Amino acid sequence: MAKRATPYVPGLQLNEPNIIKLNTNENPYPPSPNVMDAIKKEGSNHLQLYPSSTTVDLRKTIGEIYGLTADEVFIGNGSDEVLAFSFMAFFEPEKKIRYPNITYSFYPVYATLFNIPVETVEVNADFTLPTDAFFNSEGGVIFPNPNAPTSLYLPLDEIEGIIQNNPDNVVIIDEAYVDFAEGSAARLIHKYDNVLVIQTTSKSRSLAGLRVGYALGNASLIQALIKIKDSFNSYTIDRLALVGAQAAFEDRAYFDRVTNQIVNTREDVIQRLQNFGFSVLPSQTNFVFATHETYAATELYAALKEARILVRHFDQPRIENYLRITIGTEEEMNVFFEKLKDIVKV
Ligand SMILES: Cc1ncc(COP(=O)(O)O)c(C=O)c1O
Prior knowledge:
The chain is α/β, with parallel strands linked by helices and about 350 residues long. It has helices spanning about 35-45, 55-65, 80-90, 105-115, 155-165, 220-230, 240-250, 250-275, 295-305, 330-345, and strands at about 20, 75, 95-100, 120, 140-145, 170-175, 195-200, 215, 280, 285-290, 310, 320-325.
């Protein structure tokens, strides 16, 4: 019996034509063309063989980006799987962990599934994280940086304070959106043995459909994750995903171009939303979190859906009047604002 499971509810994936999807923080641009070339080649040659169970080549490639060795990198089937394995490896049923009360909604799902008690930390009035409230946790800490769905970035010196003040516990920084932000906590890995950084290829590398996420941390934390994975499934990453992700990491110029484009579009979108009377939190992600002074978020959500534009709304205290809007291509955002003109009268 699935006694403890309360599943996560992902954003709508409507496979209908002419829908502009700004609701699941996917990248609006395709991956590097080298990804498809690598996948085609691998697909026509090796699919009869099991993939690497150690994923060592990809671990080495990712490690090099951050000055880490393959022993300091773990690969999983999307960062959701890496998060699930991390809950299993580092958090214990008797000890309360802490995460913000407004955050990625998969954390409560894993806490329930793995029977881990939680003390949620109330975010500040401006939705920033109260750093001190994460000090001296009983069983560990996890939060996204930048946070989701608020899009706010916590500076690394504050993160360092949280790590220093949890010396006996693991602090997990979920950096799904960090490539659109100031910088990664990966630089703290050689300084502290209790920090685990989790990233994904789903956002900045346009590979949400391939399912490759990864953790960066000292070798003993990575070893603990490998033990969980190998007690569960030797081959969590298939051959196509391994070579596709490899090609994406190797095409640095493409990655830089796409992330810069999204950041530029984001700044333009924030300005245009403000012109329509929205307040927008200072985003360091590929989405914005916005509220309107006169139009209710539920009303805007419904009107946009009617106009075939999907955004995300969370029916949750304190953020029920906000919309999370993924940054699309410039053309998609132009259509978004055209439709908004019919909905919001300024
Ligand atoms: C904060 C955060 N962490 C993790 C993920 C999971 O990403 P994936 O499993 O695609 O790597 C998401 C996806 O939206 C996210 O918003």
